[in-house]
Structure formats: C-alpha cells, structure tokens
Amino acid sequence: MEPQSLLTLTPHGLYAPAADIHIDPLRPVARALVTHGHADHARAGHGAVLATAETLAIMAARYGPSFATRTQSLPLGEVLRVGELDVSLHPAGHVLGSAQVRLAPSGSGPRAVVSGDYKRQQDPTCAAFELVPCDMFVTEATFGLPVFRHPPTETEIRKLLTSLASFPERTHLVGAYALGKAQRVVAHLREAGYDKPIYLHGALTRLCALYEDFGVDLGPLEAVGRRGKELAGEIVLCPPGQLADRWSRRFGDVVTALASGWMRIRARVRQRGVNVPLTISDHADWDDLRATIRETGATDIWVTHGAEDALVHWCTQNGLQARPLHLLGYGDTGEVEDPIDTANDASSAA
Ligand SMILES: [Zn+2]
Ligand SMILES: [Zn+2]
Predict the structure, then answer these.
(1) What is d(CA 16, CA 10) in angstroms, rounded to the nearest whole number?
(2) Beta 235-238 vs 276-278: how paired, if at all?
(3) Helix or strand or coil: residue 123?
(4) Cα–ligand 1 centroid distance for 170 (angstroms)
(5) Which of 19, 239, 274, 302 would give a disulfide with 138, using CB separation of 3.0 to 4.6 Å?
(6) 253-277: pLDDT as tens digits
(7) Could you tell me the distance, in angstroms and rounded to a whole number, from the CA of residue 125 to the centre of ligand 2?
(8) pTM
(9) Which residues, in sequence order, are bridge partners of residue 80?
(10) Which domains does the chain have, with CATH numbers?
(11) Which helix (H) or strand (E) holds 270?
C-alpha cells in the first residue's frame, strides 16, 4: 500500500477510502472524523461523527445536541478499527479537545497523519502537541511564511499587564476568539499572577464554562452584563469584532488589545487601531511548521490552510514531495485569526 492511497480528496474534503470516512468535511457526509471544534472544521449535519469527547461537547454547545445523527467519542491515544484502518487521535495542542488523526493499516504499512490545526507553544488549556511519526503528513499552513515567528506568550501577556499598570483608570479591552484564544489569554494571565475577576462579553461565557467543566481552571470570571465605566482598570475580553463596535463605547476611554498571530504585521495593527498588539497564536509559526514536518519523518507532505505555496516550496527544496490542497472553506468563519475579516465574529463565535 502506498501512503497516497490512505487519503484522497473528494468535493467534501479529505477522505480515507479504506475507512470510508471524511476528515473535517466541508459539507455534510455520512461519516465524519472531526479534529477540533472550530467552525471551519466542525460542521453540523453529518450522519456519524467521531471525535474527542471535548470536541463533541463543543459541537453540541454550538449547534445543539442534535448536530449529528450519531456520535462516538474516541479518547486520545486509543486505537479504533474503522473499516480496514487503525485510527487514533493524538493531541494537537491547538484548542481543548483538538487532535491529530493517525491512519494506518493494521500491522505494517504506511502511516498518514492529518494534523488539523496545531501549535507547539505551551498552552495551559489543552493537552500538549504530540509528535506522531508518519510517512505522509497533512499539515496546516495558516502562518506558513517566514515573517511569522511567534514570540514567547509570557512576553505578550506582560505587555498587557504593563499597560494595565500604566493606565489603571482605563478598561483594558482584549479581543480574543471565543474558542481557544479567550481561555488561553485568561489562563496565561493567571500564570502571570493576575488573580482579579476577568470580565467576559456574552459571546465568550458559554465556552469558558465548558472549558471549566472539563477541568481547566480559569479563576474568577464574570459576565460584563450591563456594566460599563465601573470596569475602569479591569480586563474585559470580547470577540475581536467587538473592539471597535458600539458595544465597546460603554467603557469610555479604553485601551484595546488583540490576541492574534496576525499582530506580527504592523499594517494589521494600524488598520485595527489596536493599542496593545498581542502576538498570541494557536497555530504553529514558520519555524514550528518546518520543524514539525522534519520531525515526523514524513516524505509526502500535503499542505492546507493559508500560505500553502511557501511551505510547499520549502518542502520541495528540502527533498520532500509536497502538494498544496487549495481546499476552499477552511478559515473563512472568523476563527482563522484574521482580524480583517471579523465582521461577523460575534455570531460565528456564539
Ligand atoms: Zn482551528
Ligand atoms: Zn483551521
């Protein structure tokens, strides 16, 4: 069996024929394996969905309990026979419940790993990325350009706390996506010793509660509710789209921050009028993408999501077979960390 025969593309997305299952399908299918809960990977309307318990809970919270006809949870590291393949899920370090998918025929034979979205940086809110050796690796490339190098998260969090100390009379409004980023910003603030209540826009409360249900301690959280100027000197988290929205005027003179990998780009910072850019990303940066591809040992690389061509070029220069998947439909839901396209953040994050 050739590695390439493990996976193929259909109009619905990535498909493993020997297991008769789609991975993160873009349209409703009979059998889906879902890597994580972001809306571009986890869609409603499939027949059967196989995923981690956390991902299934996130999908139920977003789409309602009947988001699929049947669901089955697969714990990380456990092997399940699906058709002719052994399927297992391994931590992707991206958001709560996020998993890479390993596919291989029983016994010997080629192994394929579909990364979903992943990062190598420390994140107190989810299991750390696990390196899974394979022959064929399907990688994301959201930040697949040399300009993207994510600084240590502690440095970014310190910027926010320094600003808070300098402007204690102003509310610090931090834009962060509802699934993953918001909880991570809170958890890193706690690691840095910030123990006051952190206030949440209504679009963020439900998923924060879900994280806590799964044992992630976020410390004291409060909904903003009707409060405004009385939150001077406090940290308020909201979806990125709300930073410049009418909603934010209630706080008076604010300091705005935005947690996103795109904050590396000065033009983006200016465009958004962000006072404190926080380069905090839930995706691998250029260095980590390349390191991960090398460390898997894979010789066949499929690249999806974002800057595919630059990473494909790097792969071929380094003697690896690589192809861009050009799959439309990923990253267009306001969760790709692109602060330019966040007009419907609040709704897509709900
Ligand atoms: Zn994602
Ligand atoms: Zn994605």
Answers:
(1) 10
(2) unpaired
(3) coil
(4) 32
(5) 302
(6) 999 999 999 999 989 999 889 999 9
(7) 18
(8) 0.93
(9) 87
(10) 3-147+283-345 (3.60.15.10), 153-278 (3.40.50.12650)
(11) helix 266-272
